[in-house]
């Protein structure tokens, strides 16, 4: 097979990989914010629930979670297709790591900011929305960037539940043509390119969000 | 749809098989982490070395290893290396893949640990006419190790949690055994849940012992010999 043909088949897989990332990333961000805030501010039973979620998804491996959702849930009557299972497992897994990012970033906002907003008679929700989160958000961007790259890498696992992503295409193409060197070489480069694009995007976002916050040199 | 209930008899039947597969998982993690520490230290020292070219090459190599999936690296080693005449068993392939992948992560930990040692220590060693090797071995590393322990431990736990990916090259570790049991009996609930619980137990235990090890280390450093 020509190298051009190999690349064009693999690019189809790359599109699926990017689609999965695009679906799992918002889910992960949502989980991270919801459970991060619950972990910090909610009353007792909810807080414990958040801790169980976080510890469970960080303490076991992503592949086991994926298999559990894909193979075990159908027995409970929850019929789930491979794509949904993949997005769900990855989003929940990366989201659990994200909760710690949210928590750390909020706790890193200087205490004087809380005190000043209390002194100015802000309500708890106003305090969070107008004072704390805008500053914490900037702190979250670099670790979220790293997590998004972890997510891209983790998407390769969905090939094991038969989703035709980049890894799946590569594996089946390699089994068919035996041109393993070219195929896996191209795949590595494609994943690297996707990861670098995400990394550039998050660096841009960080610069953009830190405007007007009076940090890091020129504003 | 099958009526699904937790079957303890089935659990006791499959537990021994999964536990004996746990030995393979732990062996891969142990050998992988030894290799990762070695690779990480070499990368970290190369990135502090005198040659600018080597520093740049090592930086991009690490960036590449860290931002491509472990699964693809495993496939690459397992399927492409034989073309160069190097055939390896699944276990050896897995250990090398885990070791190099996490070595790239650990090198950053080691680098920041080494750079965290006070500059005066370097100047004093220079003044005492120690060679670079002796400075690293007797002065810098003994002081750098304690602050590195938590991050290193976290990466080793992360590596442990990636071992199920080795099932993709037919290594009979816990998840692969669970999957085989599941497909033979058409019962996935107990095997997969057991494996998940075992991973959770091992990770929590490991996190606790890392915390313990860190506290046991003397703050002022220690003799490497």
From TrEMBL, chain B:
It comes from the Bacteria. The lineage of its organism: Bacteria, Pseudomonadati, Pseudomonadota, Gammaproteobacteria, Oceanospirillales. It comes from Marinomonas arenicola. This is Ectoine/hydroxyectoine ABC transporter permease subunit EhuD. PROSITE patterns: ABC_TM1. Pfam families: BPD_transp_1 (PF00528). It is found in: Cell inner membrane; Cell membrane. PANTHER family: L-CYSTINE TRANSPORT SYSTEM PERMEASE PROTEIN TCYL (PTHR30614:SF0), MEMBRANE COMPONENT OF AMINO ACID ABC TRANSPORTER (PTHR30614). It is a multi-pass membrane protein. Residues 22-210 form the ABC transmembrane type-1 domain. Its main location: membrane. Keywords: Amino-acid transport, Cell membrane, Membrane, Transmembrane, Transmembrane helix, Transport. Belongs to the binding-protein-dependent transport system permease family. HisMQ subfamily. The gene is ehuD. The chain crosses the membrane at residues 24-46, 58-81, 192-210.
């Amino acid at each position: 097979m020509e190298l051009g043909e190999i690349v064009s088949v693999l690019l189809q897989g790359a599109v699926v990989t990017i689609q999965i990332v695009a679906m799992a990333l918002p889910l992960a961000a949502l989980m991270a914010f919801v459970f991060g805030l619950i972990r910090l501010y909610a009353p007792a039973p909810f807080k414990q629930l958040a801790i169980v979620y976080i510890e469970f998804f960080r303490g076991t491996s992503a592949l086991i979670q994926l298999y559990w959702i894909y193979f075990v849930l159908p027995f409970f009557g929850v019929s789930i297709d491979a794509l949904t299972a993949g997005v769900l497992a990855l989003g929940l897994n990366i989201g659990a790591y994200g909760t710690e990012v949210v928590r750390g970033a909020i706790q890193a906002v200087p205490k004087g900011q809380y005190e000043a907003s209390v002194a100015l008679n802000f309500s708890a929700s106003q305090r969070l929305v107008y004072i704390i989160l805008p500053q914490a958000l900037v702190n979250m961007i670099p670790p979220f960037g790293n997590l998004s790259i972890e997510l891209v890498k983790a998407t390769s696992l969905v090939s094991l539940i038969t989703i035709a992503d980049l890894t799946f295409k590569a594996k089946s193409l390699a089994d068919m043509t035996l041109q393993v060197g070219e195929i896996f070489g191209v795949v590595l480069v494609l994943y690297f390119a996707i990861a670098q694009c995400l990394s550039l995007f998050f660096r841009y976002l960080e610069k953009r969000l830190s405007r007007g916050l009076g940090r890091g040199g020129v504003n | 749809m099958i009526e699904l209930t937790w079957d303890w008899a089935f659990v006791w039947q499959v537990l021994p098989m999964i536990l004996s597969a746990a030995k393979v998982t732990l062996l891969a993690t142990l050998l992988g982490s030894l290799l990762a520490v070695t690779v990480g230290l070499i990368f970290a020292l190369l990135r502090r070395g005198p040659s600018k070219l080597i520093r740049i090459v090592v930086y991009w190599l690490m960036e590449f290893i860290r931002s491509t999936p472990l699964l693809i690296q495993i496939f690459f080693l397992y399927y492409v290396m034989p073309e160069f005449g190097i055939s390896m068993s699944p276990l050896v392939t897995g250990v090398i893949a885990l070791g190099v992948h996490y070595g790239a992560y650990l090198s950053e930990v080691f680098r920041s640990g080494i750079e965290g040692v006070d500059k005066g220590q370097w100047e004093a060693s220079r003044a005492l006419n120690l060679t670079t090797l002796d400075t690293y071995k007797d002065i810098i590393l003994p002081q750098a190790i304690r602050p590195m322990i938590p991050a290193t431990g976290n990466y080793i736990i992360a590596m442990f949690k990636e071992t199920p990916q080795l099932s993709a090259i037919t290594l009979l570790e816990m998840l692969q055994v669970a999957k085989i049991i599941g497909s033979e009996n058409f019962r996935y609930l107990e095997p997969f849940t057991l494996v998940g619980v075992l991973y959770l137990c091992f990770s929590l235990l490991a996190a606790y012992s890392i915390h313990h090890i860190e506290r046991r280390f003397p703050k002022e450093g220690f003799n490497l010999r």
